[in-house]
Amino acid sequence: MDIQINGETRTFDAPLSVLEILRAMNLPAKKIAVELNLEIVPKSAYESQMVAEGDRIEIVHFIGGG
Fold first, then answer.
1. What digits encode the pLDDT tens for the residues 1-38?
2. Distance of alpha carbon 13 from alpha carbon 23, whole angstroms
3. Residue 66: pLDDT above 70?
């Protein structure tokens, strides 16, 4: 399955949830925001929101500062 993540095509073996993709990319779910096909995915839906062939994901990392 090919999906676009931050403009780059990535290939995964099977349909996955948003959370499974984050884990595969070693990203901490607590410190990021995810947009799937121009819709923000609530953190509470990361585990249940499935990603399909051709979907587009944008991932934004939160960075603290002061």
1. 999 999 999 999 888 999 999 999 999 888 899 999 99
2. 14
3. no
CATH of domain 2-61: 3.10.20.30
Domain ranges of the chain: 2-61
Q: Are strands 56-61 and 2-5 parallel, antiparallel or unpaired?
A: parallel
Q: Is 27 exposed, middle or buried (0-12, 13-18, 19+ CB in 10 A)?
A: middle
Residue 11 tokens read as 């290939």
| AA identity, residue 28 | P
What's the pLDDT tens digit per position in 43-62?
999 999 999 999 999 999 87
- Asked if 59 and 51 touch (Cβ cutoff 8 Å), the reply is no
